[in-house]
Predict the 3D structure of the following.
Amino acid sequence: MKRHIYLEMKGLEEAKEIFFSRFPPQLRTEGEEISAEDSLWRVTAEPVFAKISAPTYHSAAMDGIAVRAEDTYGTTERNPRVLEIGRDAQWVNTGQALPDGFNSVIMVEKLHQVDEGHVEIRSPAYPWQHIRKVGEDIVATQLLLPQNHQVRPYDIGALISGGVFSLKVWRRPKVVIIPTGSELVRHGDLRPHAEPDKGRIIEFNSLIIEALTRECYGIPITTDIVSDLEGDIRDTLKRAVGSDADVIIINAGSSAGSKDFTASVVAEMGEVLVHGVAMMPGKPTILGDIAGKPVIGNPGYTVSATLSFQQFVRPLLYRLQGLRMPREKRLGVRPSRDIPSKLGIEEFIRVNLGKVKEGIVATPLPRAAGSITTLTRAEGIIRIPANAEGISQEEEVEAELLVDEDELLNTVVIIGSHDITIDILADEVRRKGFDLRLSSGNVGSLGGLIALRKGTSHIAGSHLLDTETGEYNLSYIKRYLKGVKVSVFHLVLRDQGLIIPKGNPKGIKGIEDLCRDDVIIVNRQAGSGTRILFDYELKKVGLKPESIKGYDREESTHMAVAVDVLSGAADCGMGIFAAARALDLEFIPMTQEQYDIIIPSEILDSPNIRIILETIKSDDFRERVFALGGYDPSKSGQFWTEIG
């Protein structure tokens, strides 16, 4: 089948210049008249002037008496004056209209009531004392709100007070979202908790784009799912262009595959301004113009689609409404490890953030363009310029902050070996009501120890087996953390073994079967405790790594290994029982290993670390871990030893 070829790929800033110059800032959706009470966050399409003054009459600003100021002149403590109520003074309450003939108010605290009809004053009043005069707040014809002003809650009060009960605002831009893909199915068409049929995918990108559109004060309109047929895409796009849509987004079909028709359809109906932007994720983005309407071809991968929206659609929606883009909050961070990048492509790296010692540490999340969980977990974004081949853990770089900066102060950074109980720990801390987040990075046990040595984490998770002594972690701590005093606490004992498919179709009985020609494995990354254990088990039975198919294929978590086995990408993988159980796979146990957490002794007394240790010791945590299967949490939180 015919494959499309990217047009000349543009750099991100060049692509923005081309696109936004076609749709300049003065472009607006037309205005509409709405009631003042419905105007929150809307943008004024013309200046708004007060129709009446506020207040509309002279009123008392204090509880007390209304008087004629000139009648009080000469009054002193030694020469007090008695006023007759009804003739010389009248009682008034705050907000009450000032009686005719009076021009001042003396507050009640300054009065001495002689009897029911007389009061004594001991100081003079001056004209207009404690009086709100007509128009003191708003004067009729006064400018209340300029054009292109976003209405805030208190602006609504000013409008009503000034007699403006309706106003003209820019119409909220309508965004038509066209999800494409023959493999897609709506979640509403599935039974609760049911999986889609094999080869079908639940469509959710449009829901994310809808929410992002609302966040930019736009109105999303999502069409039915469109199949990967050029004619269907063309027909749907024609209807969108012919509607009152201000912006059109076609999700998926923007790449260079045989079923990616977006670019050709846009070119046929209008003009493709850009096809391919030098950014990752989001490279396949299409930017077009059909009949004067901006058309954006978003990539199908979720992270790519989101980034494409943020870079092109979001600024456009703000422009259409006369709004200024919110300023991004940035701060300096230090990566927890080196982050390589492809030269010539601007890359956006999602990261977890946490304060360790005096700096903010950024732990990179997986870079897969289709990984939605990297969006839900991300607390910051690091941009690597197109002219750089990456960033070093030794350099400070800027990160765009996605959370409140105060949250970073209450973050515990855990780097090391992946374990499901770390996720349970993070949830249990929040469930108990502590304002504390856990930021975890899965870099393997050795990576965790090195992070402690470099001061880029608070805690390391490790299960490194010393194959000479059969002891866990201690010899590695002594080797890699020389001069650093650390305390070691038990987290769990856990069952490690071979994760295999349900029913064991290839009849794998043990590690000896992994050298068979019909068996393909998936491995854990070098430096992980599971990899060291796996290599140890291979050595015990005399198997060499090169004799095993798939040995060089690596995953960074136990769940990733289990998913590979479940999907058929591998026949077997080394991992923990809990991962196999979670995906209803079978498990061949091999050993029970010790997983510990290592903490610099100097921070043991910090409140956040105490919360972590107390939570690990709690019955609630232990019960939840035990329920996962394959774990023995009986020693969770127990101090083992101090080294250094």
